[in-house]
Amino acid sequence: MRTRVKICGLTRAEDVATAVSCGVDAVGLVFYPSSPRAVTPAQAAALIHTVPPFVTVVGLFVDAEPVWVRTVLAQVPLGALQFHGHEPPDYCESFARPWIKAIAVRHTTAFDEVINRYAAAAGLLLDTYDPTLPGGTGRSFDWHLIPPAVANRCILAGGLTPDNVARAIQQVKPYAVDVSGGVESARGVKDCSKIAAFMQGVHDGDQFC
Ligand SMILES: O=C(O)c1ccccc1NCC(=O)[C@H](O)[C@H](O)COP(=O)(O)O
Prior knowledge:
The protein is α/β, with parallel strands linked by helices. It has eight helices and ten strands. An eight-stranded parallel beta barrel has the order 1-2-3-4-5-6-7-8.
């Protein structure tokens, strides 16, 4: 099965168009106001206007008040929600949308507990732990920390680039990969040649799986 791809932190219509034309499976929009990649609901609605069916639009939140998530949902037709904070499962479940829980991986991560706790999630996104940032770190983590039982159903994130994504896929064999900083020329500004190179890297990684 080919590895699915999500590009996160899109802020410009031309980057959404490039991502779609390069064959991504999902595009991510950040609704965390502190992020340099944050978009407003009005910006988001305009950005995804031309996203075709079968490309999932994912909205990213960090410990948001439920009213903020509902405000976004009322204006933006999100296909899935991605939670990057300390959101408990009942909170994640309360918006009646498929949801992804981001897990900041470190040596002490108890994967059994995480899997049980977030059993209702559509997916677990494994990202780099950083005590000062809830995500979008641009740094990778030690993929050996991922147990085999989790690897093939996870969304692998954190510091993926056109140069390392093939190796990541060969080593981890994730369900999907998620990238933001690795395909940017500046925060929130994607680079079309990096997106194309990333997709080629995914394809190369898949050849060996
Ligand atoms: O992008 C942000 O600024 C951000 C802020 C707060 C929480 C999450 C954020 N981004 C998440 C992502 O873009 C990705 O899902 C993931 O963290 C990988 O990012 P990167 O390491 O830059 O590829």
